[in-house]
Amino acid sequence: MGAIYILWLREMKRYIRSRVQIVVSLGQPALYLLALGFGFGPVFQKAGEGSYLQFMAPGVIGMTVLFSSIFSGIAMLWDRQFGFLKETLVAPVPRIQIMIGRTLGGATVAMIQGVLILVICLVAGFRPQHWIAVPAAFVFVMMIAVVFAALGTGIGSIIKDMQGFQLIMNFLVMPIFFLSGALYPLKNLPRVLTWITNADPLSYGVDGLRGVLTGLWAFPYALDVAVLCGLAAVFLTMGAWLFSRIQL
Questions:
Q1: Cβ–Cβ < 8 Å for 62, 182
Q2: Average pLDDT over the chain, rounded to whole?
Q3: CA 76/CA 81 separation, integer angstroms
């Protein structure tokens, strides 16, 4: 457990010391929130759907957590290039503990980012239906962070160059985000698109966030929790197996 804590603490210190990273990582979600939230607000209201800011704010929080957690795998590539990964792998510590420590560190950073963008949403005018729902939303933020941090760690274990990782992320992260229902309702979609959105892991995280914060549900609450917990177990297992097979 000591190795897990040390690696988790390392990720925390790296994040806290990089103030530029904190500011820059909040720029894109804030742009989506302000440009789309207020830009498409009148169109959304004319369609009888209410406030678009209220609708998309949980999606922007989910996007922030997705990007922060899955891109935590990039840190593994830097550690591989500068030799730190080799030092940790040759240490007398089980690799599963190294993987868990890195994954939990990336997930914690993503959760902090999610909380910061929630504050920005509140400043912009978003209001949850009940303030007591905020702790419940944090549970979904945590599950999203763990799921995609584990996925990012798994992908970072098999990719050896930065260009390859960025290419895979662009073909993976953006479709996951845009097909999750973060920016539009999942009802009345074409059948094929409905199947794709139902297969998107982030759809259940965004739906859980939106449901507890605004009361709008696309899936049952139990289904959202079950899918995210199941995916967390699958991705953690897969990430642990891939990390154990790293060859330096």
A1: yes
A2: 82
A3: 9
Highest-confidence segment of 18-32, 86-100, 106-120: 106-120
The count of C-alpha atoms lying within 13 angstroms of the C-alpha of 161, restricted to the half-sphere facing its C-beta, is 3
Question: In terms of residue numbers, what domain contains 197?
Answer: 2-244
CB neighbour list of residue 89: distance below 8 Å, 6 or more residues apart = 95, 98, 246, 248
d(CA 94, CA 240): 11
- Predicted TM-score (pTM) of the model is 0.88
> Rounded to whole angstroms, how far apart are CA atoms 110 and 223?
23
**99 and 238 Cβ atoms separated by less than 8 Å:** no
The total number of structural domains that make up the chain: 1
